[in-house]
Specification:
43% helix, alpha/beta, single chain, Leucine Aminopeptidase, subunit E, domain 1, 189 residues, 19% strand, 6 strands, six-stranded mixed sheet, globular
């Protein structure tokens, strides 16, 4: 009888199976994240949790004033952290605010990685099963889309391989360019 543990083909089959399983748990789509009917959507936030422009502004307009009120009560967080609030009038139950930048500043790779990790930790703590992420930091904060895809997909794969309540992670990309960049990286899983 052959020892599968020493067979190079067994390792390749294991990696292939893991990639298939991950692609069932991570779903890419183009669209409006504020329309997602999931447990939580992620907001690309500043650390002051002020819902101004970009995605945060859309969340404020569609979700109503309660989201900003909860952000105000929570207060600022450190860059690289995240905060969770209710979702107001949105379909989601929660908004998780990924503080990948200071107000008026740019996102860094370290802040993006850390805030993504914090979002996933908060999701687990609040028994979130489905979560939708945008391409955090690539709008107003000016972070490169390809690096964003690499970092966020990496953090999500790592999280899903551990002990978590999260069953499905959606990446809801606003336009075709963002979708195509994420899809290229996703196809490497």
């Amino acid at each position: 009888m052959r020892d599968e543990g020493k067979c190079p083909g067994a390792a390749v089959r294991g990696l292939w199976s893991a990639g298939i399983a991950m692609k069932e748990k991570i779903i890419l789509q183009q669209g409006d994240i504020t329309e997602m009917d999931v447990d939580a959507i992620v907001n690309a936030a500043n650390n002051d949790l002020q819902l101004g422009g970009g995605l945060a502004g859309v969340i404020r307009r569609k979700g109503g004033p309660s989201i900003q009120q909860e952000c105000n009560a929570h207060g600022p967080v450190k860059v690289g952290e995240a905060a969770i609030t209710g979702a107001g009038d949105l379909k989601a139950r929660y908004v998780i605010h990924a503080a990948s930048m200071s107000l008026g500043c740019r996102t860094t790779a370290e802040a993006l990685r850390s805030s993504t990790r914090h979002c996933l930790r908060l999701a687990k703590e609040h028994d979130v099963r489905t979560i939708a992420f945008p391409a955090v930091g690539t709008g107003i904060a000016g972070f490169p889309l390809d690096e964003c895809a690499d970092i966020m997909l990496d953090e999500c794969v790592n999280h899903l391989q551990g002990d978590t309540t999260v069953e499905t992670i959606y990446f809801v990309l606003f336009d075709k360019r963002a979708y195509d960049v994420f899809k290229e990286r996703y196809d490497r899983l």
